[in-house]
Amino acid sequence: MSTATEPEAFGARLRRAMDTRGPLCVGIDPHSSLLSAWGLSDDVAGLTAFTRTVVEALADRVAVLKPQSAFFERFGSRGVAVLEKAVAEARAAGALVLMDAKRGDIGSTMAAYAQTYLDKDSPLFSDALTVSPYLGFGSLRPALDAARVSGSGLFVLALTSNPEGAEVQRSTAADGRSLAQLMLDHMAAENSGATPLGSIGAVVGATLGEAGVDLGINGPLLAPGIGAQGATPADLPGVFGAAVGNVVPSVSRGVLRHGPDVYALRAAAERFSDEVRTAVEGAVGSTDGAR
Ligand SMILES: O=C(O)c1cc(=O)[nH]c(=O)n1[C@@H]1O[C@H](COP(=O)(O)O)[C@@H](O)[C@H]1O
């Protein structure tokens, strides 16, 4: 619960958005190839038109929009200016903005990243940020603290959707746990006691077949890899098991390739949302039946 001085926590805001809008996250990834497929130039003008169209099409209906910072940074400061505007417009239209910048560094530098994305006075302030814990979970402390102060959230990489991730994330820590499980256990500790949902989420690829880890972190689970990377909403119950109700399935190219028509973008997002609903309700129903 929030007070006059304390903003409402990200986990509570996300739970409400998932319940009212459905849990889908759509990524804003302006690849050169997509700009070209949309008939746009691969420059700041094309980037601006692409981004504005996605925000106009989806910010008033999906729970989460996830701009991928790399595709904006490649145009330098003018690309970042497009990103700033998109963040503000998407938030104003009611979407939660998850900045996908996958930051991770030593604590003192992490503090600067936290000021960039998790401080309410920053031009890039976002509802949540993706971070990498593989410099040690404790290196994220400045971001964890900043998120608590501003009512924002973090999505911490646990098991990524790319096949190369396993050699690091499935390797064994000194105490016998996998590195991914070690990180998930840290997230569970951060979220302990939070209701209705903690603000520290995990990233777990929808492509994994079966996660094979304990996902009971009392926080949201971002599931990228649906669409272009080959996973489908029907895969979610198999990957996430009993935690499927906390999953935020994420699709970028699978939706974006339907542009530039605003109605086609909306229809594509709607189809993914419907498939997610069917998969999640089916899984929850079968769990209920087993009780
Ligand atoms: O944090 C992410 O969003 C992420 C984590 C991960 O494990 N895999 C992954 O693909 N992503 C991001 O999710 C998006 C996937 O895009 P599509 O494959 O086009 O849906 C990209 O922006 C990736 O950087």
Automatic annotation (TrEMBL):
Q: Which HAMAP family match?
A: OMPdecase_type2
**What Gene3D superfamilies does the entry give?**
Aldolase class I
Residue ranges of the Orotidine 5'-phosphate decarboxylase domain?
Answer: 23-268
Highest taxon, organism lineage: Bacteria
Instruction: Note the InterPro entries from the entry.
Output: Aldolase_TIM, OMPdecase_AS, OMPdecase_type-2, OMPdeCOase_dom, RibuloseP-bd_barrel
- Which sites are catalytic? 102
Q: Does the keyword NAD apply?
A: no
Q: Name one Pfam family in it.
A: OMPdecase
Entry's Gene Ontology molecular function annotations: orotidine-5'-phosphate decarboxylase activity
CDD domains from the UniProt entry: OMP_decarboxylase_like
Q: Which PROSITE patterns match?
A: OMPDECASE
User: Which SUPFAM superfamilies does the UniProt record give?
Assistant: Ribulose-phoshate binding barrel
PANTHER family per UniProt: OROTIDINE 5'-PHOSPHATE DECARBOXYLASE
Per its UniProt entry, what is the enzyme's top EC class, as one word? lyase
Name of the protein in question: Orotidine 5'-phosphate decarboxylase
Catalysed reaction per UniProt? orotidine 5'-phosphate + H(+) = UMP + CO2
E.C. no: 4.1.1.23
Record's keyword terms, sorted: Decarboxylase, Lyase, Pyrimidine biosynthesis
